Every structure is written in C-alpha cells, then in structure tokens.
Amino acid sequence: MQIYWTKINKIIEETPEVKTYMLECPEGLTWEEGAHIHLALEGFNAGEKPNRSLIRHMSISTLPQSNSIGITTRIKEQCSEFKSTLRNHKIGDEVAVFKIHSNVPLKREDKNVYLLSSGVGLATFRPLVLDYFDRADNVNQIHSLNIDSSRDFLFPDVFESTPDKKFTAQFVDNRKDYYEEVKNLAADKDGLFYIVGSDEFLVQNIEVLREQGIKPEQIMLDKREGQLPEFLSFELSI
C-alpha cells in the first residue's frame, strides 16, 4: 500500500459547519467520480499499529482533472479526535492519503439517475454531477434530492436546477417531505437510484424504494461489493 503525504493547498468554508480541504494531488494519482479515499493525520503511523482515531474514510468531492483532492466534511463544535485535529490544520500542513476506491461511478445506461443524500453526502455526488455536465452521454437526466435540516445547503454553484442540462436539484429540510419525494421519484420503475448517508439512512431509503417496486440492482450504494447483500436483501412484507 502506497501512502502519499501531501499538503493542504486551500481551505474553503462551505457553511458554518462544513469545510472543504483542497489537497495537492500527488503525481500519477487518479480516481473515478464517486470515489473515496483514506485520509490520515500526522502521527497515525507513529506506533507499532496505526492509530485508527487519526484515519477516516472520506469521499472525494472533486474530479481528477481539477488536479486537487477535495475533502468535504462537517465539523461540529463537539466532534471526534480526528475532526478536532483536522479543524486545527492550516494551509501548508501535511496529511496522508491512501487506498482510493470507487463504489458509485456514474452508470451510463440511457436511464434517469436519482441521487439521494443526506447533508454532506452531497460531496460524494458532486463529481458525478460535474462528470455528467462535462459529458451527458447515455444518461437521460439527473435528479438530486438532499435532506439537510441546517438549511445551509451545500455546493449551490453545482446543485442548482439547470433545465437545459436536464439536471434538477431539490432540497428539503425534514424527513417526512424527503421520503414523500423519494416515493414520487420511485414512480420511475426503470431509474437508477444512488444513496449516500449513514447506514440508517441507507436502510430507510432502500425500504421505501423496495416497497415502491424498485429492484435491488437499480440501487447503488457507496459500499464494498461484499457489504451490499447486508443492505439490499430487504424482504418485502406480504
């Protein structure tokens, strides 16, 4: 496993609680849209065993052609050791990155694509939307639905409805409205549904989609292939 030590080039305050750390891209490093990476802070490998409290699995919110690895994360006042340490990092500080993998690249199957996310989960979908804007081949249209009770919605420059590009961005601030909209979207029995969020959020979305007749193979999760049956083996009640 190759570990790349790289510098923070820029820190963007997206909202009062959400920051994007733009990391210098090590030479030769590339990835697919929807990828995640392991981000580690100084000291994580100082002992005999890695200090896992200084390592996190993070989505990359940029595309490779930006030549920068964007890491977008919510940092609340009360937070983990990892996030409190990251919060104190400044431009020029070094972090380590390793093990890139993509579970949710954009499928180009001449279907409608629905992106279902909670809060900062939009960071995973940002590169998919940018990739679609660059090349819309074999994608009918994309609809993004995000729930965020903070109302500080992320990436307004990207997640803005653009009819001429066949892209719709929808935000709601409560679960009741969100799941009603999921049911409405599931009226498209041939669509592809991508879900990003906590495990609980994934399970709730899958239950709603399956009850509306959406098949497991139409549901994309940011999970390793071996983990998918745990989520997608949802049994419909008779």
From TrEMBL:
<dbReference type="InterPro" id="IPR017938">
    <property type="entry name" value="Riboflavin_synthase-like_b-brl"/>
</dbReference>
<protein>
    <recommendedName>
        <fullName>FAD-binding FR-type domain-containing protein</fullName>
    </recommendedName>
</protein>
<dbReference type="InterPro" id="IPR039261">
    <property type="entry name" value="FNR_nucleotide-bd"/>
</dbReference>
